[in-house]
Write a structure and sequence with these properties.
The complex is a heterodimer of chains A (about 350) and B (about 525). Chain A is built from 15 helices and 2 strands. Chain A has about 350 residues and is mainly alpha-helical. In chain A, helix 4 runs antiparallel to helix 12, helix 4 crosses helix 14 and helix 6 packs across helix 7. The longest helix of chain A has 27 residues. Chain B has 21 helices and 20 strands. Classes of the chains: A mainly alpha (about 350), B alpha/beta (about 525). Chain A: This is Sugar ABC transporter permease.
Chain lengths: ~350, ~525
């Protein structure tokens, strides 16, 4: 009796090994994202071969950095079953206050210190989120809606509303600093900026934290079932503070890169793009209910959104259509995953 | 089970509770509990819902602190434990909900706690993947689960329930536990799975691990053996070897009143035929035929994969039959969805009342009238609350709910009361046939008694009842006839007044080949 039971379980366990596409997609939902991304790229490349030029690809890379950093932060919080909508406000707050600070008080400070200050500043604001979520014991959606207004309100009321057009020189220089540079066929100089490196570094760091540290496993455990995780001895307070602090740090970094890349600091920027970022993370296969998803999927989701936003125009689809396309993709992917789940 | 442990000298004291008191607000939940647990022994903590069992477990596992008293763990005295201290000392709890993290793999669920405890709960640590795998392999093989990589990497939510139960136990022993507390571990298991669990317990005891069961099922206590600890109203009313107590004595100690463990069924079924099923097939069973008279109680049992669950769902439209016929009072009927069944007067009390049956955050009143909302509402769709309340009050009365406050959320009631609310709801449509699936799963002895009495009263009133259950004493005590299913067919039909548990059990387990011929 015992033996037959074990055999049956062994059979069950062995089943996923026999390859089934449906099962594969269920286990690795980001494969759908990858497939969509490839399909779009192929379609666009066929319709307009200019897409495959290095210039376009580098544009996509450059446009992914800020959104990618945001998305990694959103993903790590989503993995723990929470949600954050205040990250754009954290980014705006950090980048604008820091620009003002550097411009008025610390003009000569090196860019490395500015970046570190952005990270620390963002992390501090994030920790406020974490403490509120933990101690109020209120869903993080509500808390971060509140803090989004709070951070942004504080920024606009007390720090300033003036659009800063001329950045401190070291920040502008960082935005222009090339990672590599070459001349395209038509003679224009194409640059992949140095700051692009931040995204792969942040992605690898996030992956490492999630997959190689106890904290990472704890984050997924909390995303699976917070009550049980706490019963098993995971310290929810530490986890909440780390999560939101980490997401805040990424947001702060994203904010300052946004300023350097655009060579201006507009306090009204960024806020309003939350849904776009959350859409990217969800398209990357992370379930909104938490506990699932991968860093790779998140990055693929970001690329998908950036590609849709920047290249549809190349094939003659009006930019107003972008939302239609993103919307249908999200519904499509969601419907697909849900039917997969039901079949289970 | 080696000879060595059998002859072991008086075993070592591991955990002792002295005069533990616990107040929750004004409620005195524990009134001076004294308990001692020795290594290598099995204990059964018995008591009705609300007697303080779960509070004591939570104190042992460090989830809550006692208001007063002393805990002596491994020779050291504490006023309260925290979860990491308790885990560090080797106290592991397998909660009724199993406390598995659904989105993590088997290996992580089993072996991550070891590393967490090793890091004293600090999370800024690398986690050791190879050690994770080794620990998981060792623990899984102890409970008889596979240890190949595919199984280790399976996400727990993809496993069947019985395997999850074993994974939860594997986690408990992965950290070299000295005391494993199991909170109602057999509630959701079939008989065969319970047998396997009992073997695992034997193995744990032979490795000098103490096991503390918290349970309602007295039959299983006797099969496992060991010491009984009986709680009532926050006090320990008996403690000693199980052999010293009869089942009846234990029941009476738990409830504080005499319990009639004899047959509940005294009535006789009526003459008219209520239900006739012919050549009924669906995924899970095929070509079934049986009939049911007015006022008859029919028991259906079998192993989990025998098709009994599918039959219950086919009769009630939850998972409709693919072929065959169902006739109610001589008229053929088609049941394609639950609404059809309800319209024809077939009620279904599902096994998983929490997921399938009740709106836990809604009040008793709202749950009771959920099926008759259209009847209670006027042309504008406004529900007549006054009439609804009157009906809900009557149903609660009939089902002997132990509260008069119909506005209490159902989630705050005990399992037995929740079940009574659910049965009461079906009475609101005045069904001709009621299909009860595991009516007393997770329900304590006292509530069982009330539920059985209610079932008998329904049959007396002429309703036909089908009880699908693997609680064999329950069927023997309540039914007129019992059908035993195996491999999708009916393999035996027994008169419940004459049959024995052994007979039923044998029919349930008879090999499939025998019946295929």
């Amino acid at each position: 009796m015992n033996a037959s039971r074990i055999e049956q379980l062994k059979e069950d366990a062995a089943r996923p090994q026999s390859f089934s596409l449906g099962e594969f997609i269920r286990r690795r939902p980001e494969s759908i994202t990858f497939f969509l991304l490839v399909a779009i790229c192929v379609a666009v490349a066929v319709a307009n071969p200019a897409f495959l030029q290095p210039a376009t690809l580098i544009d996509i890379g450059r446009a992914s950095v800020v959104m990618g950093l945001f998305a990694l932060g959103v993903f790590i919080i989503l993995a723990a079953g929470g949600i954050d909508v205040s990250f754009t406000a954290i980014a705006a707050f950090t980048m604008y206050s820091l620009t003002v600070l550097v411009q008025s008080y610390l003009p000569g400070i090196p860019i490395a210190v500015i970046l570190i200050m952005a990270i620390v500043g963002g992390a501090l604001l994030g920790v406020i989120n974490g403490l509120l979520v933990h101690h109020l014991n209120v869903p993080s959606l509500i808390v971060t809606i509140g803090t989004q207004y709070l951070f942004r309100g504080f920024l606009l009321s007390f720090i300033g509303t003036v659009w800063i057009m001329s950045l401190p020189p070291q920040m502008g220089a960082f935005g222009r600093m090339p990672l590599f540079q070459f001349e395209s066929a038509n003679g224009a100089v194409i640059t992949l900026p140095f700051y692009f490196l931040v995204l792969p570094i942040a992605a690898v760091a996030t992956w490492w934290i999630l997959n190689r540290t106890l904290m990472g496993r704890a984050i997924f455990a909390v995303g699976g079932n917070a009550q049980i995780a706490s019963r098993l001895g995971y310290n929810l307070k530490t986890i909440h503070i780390f999560l939101f602090g980490y997401a805040g740090a990424l947001a702060g970094l994203a904010g300052i890169i946004h300023v350097c890349a655009n060579r201006q600091a507009n306090p009204f920027d960024l806020v309003g793009t939350e849904i776009n970022v959350i859409a990217a993370v969800v398209l990357g296969g992370a379930r909104i209910t938490g506990g699932t998803g991968t860093v790779l999927g998140t990055i693929l989701g970001v690329l998908l959104i950036v590609v849709i936003n920047s290249v549809l125009v190349m094939v003659g689809i009006p930019s107003t259509w972008q939302r239609l396309v993103v919307g249908s993709f999200i519904l499509l992917a969601a419907a697909f995953f849900v039917t997969r789940q039901r079949k289970k | 089970m080696s000879a060595m442990t059998k002859n072991a000298p008086a075993s070592e004291r591991f955990l002792e509770l002295r005069n533990i008191q616990k107040w929750f607000g004004g409620v005195h939940a524990l009134r001076g509990i004294d308990l001692a647990l020795n290594l290598g022994e099995a204990y059964h903590l018995l008591g009705e819902n609300g007697c303080g069992k779960s509070t004591v477990i939570k104190i042992m596992s460090g989830a809550i602190a006692p208001s007063e008293g002393e805990i002596i763990l491994d020779g050291r005295s504490y006023t309260a434990l925290d979860p990491i201290q308790s885990l560090g000392a080797g106290i592991e709890t397998v909660y009724q909900d199993l406390s598995l993290i659904p989105n993590l793999t088997v290996a992580e669920n089993v072996a991550l706690s070891e590393q967490l405890v090793g890091a004293h709960g600090r999370l800024a640590r690398l986690f050791d993947r190879s050690r994770l795998r080794q620990t998981a392999e060792r623990a899984l093989s102890t409970v008889g689960l596979p240890t190949d990589r595919a199984f280790l990497n399976t996400v727990v939510s993809d496993l069947p329930l019985a395997a999850r139960q074993l994974v939860a136990i594997a986690r408990a022993i992965a950290t070299r536990a000295k005391l494993v507390i199991m909170d109602e571990p057999t509630t959701s298991l079939t008989r065969r799975e319970v047998d396997n669990l009992i073997r695992v317990v034997e193995r744990l005891r032979s490795e000098n691990v103490a096991v503390l069961f918290v349970t309602h099922k007295l039959d299983e206590c006797y099969r496992i053996g060991g010491h009984a600890i009986v709680f009532r109203d926050g006090q320990c009313v008996a403690q000693g070897p199980l052999e010293d107590y009869s089942k009846k004595q234990l029941s009476e100690l738990m409830t504080g009143r005499p319990i009639d463990a004899e047959r509940y069924r005294h009535g006789k079924p009526g003459d008219g035929e209520l239900l006739r099923v012919e050549h009924l097939s669906a995924p899970g069973f095929s070509d079934l035929g049986f009939s049911l008279r007015q006022g008859e109680i029919l028991g259906i049992t079998g192993l989990a994969d025998s098709g009994r669950n599918e039959l219950a769902m086919a009769l009630t439209g939850v998972a409709p039959a693919t072929s065959g016929s169902i006739a109610l009072q001589g008229r053929p009927v088609t049941v394609r969805r639950p609404a059809d069944a309800i319209a024809m007067g077939i009620g279904y009390v599902p096994e998983d009342r929490l997921a399938e049956g009740l709106f836990l955050d809604k009040s008793i009143f709202e749950n009771e009238i959920a099926l008759i909302l259209t009847r209670l509402s006027n042309a504008l769709g406004v529900v007549d609350k006054k009439q609804g309340r009157a009906i809900a009050a009557r149903l609660s009365e009939e089902m002997r709910l132990n509260t008069k406050d119909l506005d209490l959320p159902v989630g705050s009631l005990s399992g037995g009361n929740q079940q009574r609310v659910l049965i009461g709801r079906w009475l609101s449509i005045g069904p001709k046939l009621l299909v009860l699936h595991g009516p007393t799963v997770g329900v304590d002895v006292g509530s069982k008694d009330t539920i059985y009495r209610a079932i008998q009263a329904l049959a007396e009133a002429g309703m036909g009842l089908i009880i699908v259950s693997d609680d064999l004493p329950e069927l023997l005590q309540n039914a007129d006839r019992i059908l035993v299913m195996n491999a999708g067919g009916i393999v035996a039909q027994l008169d419940a007044a004459e049959a024995s548990e052994e007979q039923l059990y044998k029919a349930m387990l008879s090999s499939r080949k025998e019946h295929a011929q």
